[in-house]
Amino acid sequence: RLEIKSLPLLTSVVGLTTNPTQCYSELATVVNHVAVHLKEEKTTLLSWMDREKDYIIDLLVPVHDAIESEAGNSTKEGLMREIKSGLLDSVNQIVVVKNYSMPKEAATARRAGYGDIHQFLLSPTETTLNLNLTKKGRMDVHRLIDNNFCAAVSHTSRGSGHQRILVLTKRNAESPSDLKAKKERKEKHMELLVKFNMYQKFTLTLPPTGTKLGLILRTNEAFGNMTEIKDVVADSPLENFIPKDVHIVSLRGDAIGFVQPRSMKDTIAAFTEVQAAASKQLEFIVVPTSATSV
User: Fold this and answer.
1) Among 27, 101, 227, 280, which is most buried by a count of CB atoms within 10 Å?
2) Which residue ranges of the chain lie beneath pLDDT 70?
3) DSSP code per residue over 215-278
């Protein structure tokens, strides 16, 4: 099976071959083929250690950077087009909130007299439930799940003695580690767009709660409902520090973490939270309104 780390190494020595132009072209075909498998999660071609890697960060960018020979310029340009296109697709992808409600299973739990499990299974957002039960109580819940909806809900016990709890988990839910990995990957993609001068990044210190920011904002539906900073009023405390005619792609601050506001309401809520926090520093990543590639 292919190992991704070998492709940048191969690329770095192509310039030493007798026909580097042809070698770069053939190498690009292989790289793009592997990239498609990574992107579409077709893992049969890949080694086990590569199956969770990102096709942009771990493959396309290292191969692009490894091309030094002039003979590889067209290959390098093609890779950069693929990189930028993939980055834009990633950061502009709106995460759809999944509905984890299980009404059929919830009805079964209600009929069996388990109100807390009924509410958990009916919830569209809750994915785990911790139950502090007696040994008999845990066994009763085991039987409820195993006999009725073991394909939808898993159960494990943690701890010991009086601290032992039963943990129910909806099987169709993404794990916290998967969600964290996706968020970190998107942040890295955002940083690459800044590196390639497609996006801009700057950090401001917002004034405290009660001070108006003096920003004229609007929601731009053509830009995926991003918030556009149309203008900054003359007496704004941010007048000399914030650009005009840009769309807010993401915000980061101690009080809010990393967020991608998808409405003006989201943006204003983030501003308000940062103004009320101890640390009022806010990092912006923006794209100019004139950009047509978003």
Assistant:
1) 227
2) 1-2, 94-97, 291-294
3) EEEEEEGGGTTEEEEEEE-TT-TTTTTS-SSEEEEEEEETTTEEE---SHHHHHHHHHHHHHSS
